[in-house]
Write a structure and sequence with these properties.
The chain is an all-alpha fold. The protein contains 18 helices and no strands. Helix 6 runs parallel beside helix 17. The chain starts with a helix and ends with a helix.
Length: about 400
Amino acid sequence: MARPVRELLIAAGLGLLVACAYLPSLANGFIYDDHEVIEVQPRPTRAADLVRVFAEPHFRGLPYYRPVVRASLLAQKGLHGDTPALFHLGNALLAGAAAVAAYALLRAPTLRIAAPFAFLAAAIFAVHPVASSAVHPIASGRETLMPALWVLAAAAAWLRARRGIALACFALALGSKEQAAVLPFLFVLADGLALTSDAPPLRRRAAGRWASRYAGVVAVALGYIAVRRLVLGSTAVAWAGDPVAPLWSLLFGLQVALAPFATLHYEPELGVWLSATRVALAVAVLAVMLAAARSTGAPSVRAVAFWAGWFVLTQLPTANVFRQEAPFDERYAFLALLAFPAMAAASATAFATSPLRLRMVSAAGAALVFSLAVLTVRRAPTFRDDAAFATQWLRSNPA
């Protein structure tokens, strides 16, 4: 079988597997933001009703501009009305697509991750309990899931020297959520670490080539800023004023990625999520991963630097650098957690040099995917309705 066909079949199988993990959510209804973003909105009857969302704020009272997400939700409403199960199905399918995009990124030639381990790493990323916060709630979930899909696709395209696709995905990501503003920095990071095949050399005589390379990126970013300002007006961004706050956010991301809660802890305060036991466990897991990377010689130092930068950069917009509505939430760490299975997959690729080792590592990875998927499936009833959601929120944070 030709390699492109095999890769497509693997990606399709991955997407189907991940989507199936979220099918239990089809029994759930609308909760929380869904009422404002979906239920109270008029049902669109023509294309112009979808186009108008590009000239409107996303949410009353908040400086958000996310027309791509709103258009997707309203397009569904136009097709099937207020039927929660079909909105949940849309999110499940998007989760499968995000897993496929993660697989495409992990399979970039410069990252040197074998197909079986890229498959397992993308599955871990997509069925991780943290991911459930980006899939089970319809509106707030899609506001995280859809931009994640476009960010992953853009990064995968950039590493493969497909800049046109990367720019299109960058524009879609910006139109989905403000967090996508970190994408140019991920592009620069990949270029600086020589993980892209078409990056110009780092010397003064190549300055013109670098300017040409990023002209499209700058144009997309400036266009987004101009449109956003036109729609929202002048929206002041206030610094959080606490230099330690971003470090807490990164620690939160580390903890929930490597030592996740079995149950939902929605927008937990510092005193709710911070656990010495879980932090110690997360640090121990990270230490084992780094030791494995060092002993196998993979991932390379450049790849480690890229994934470390990925972990930090994808969290920065929600890392309390600026004032934000909720200081912490699992959905803020969704994109960032990919860094850990990616590094583990690179080590596994270098270690599994014999059929026996391949079977051993694959079995361990499959067991981890299954365990995480069980936790994620068990979270689905938490989002059944407002009462179930509020009950769990109160249980995890009595204050």
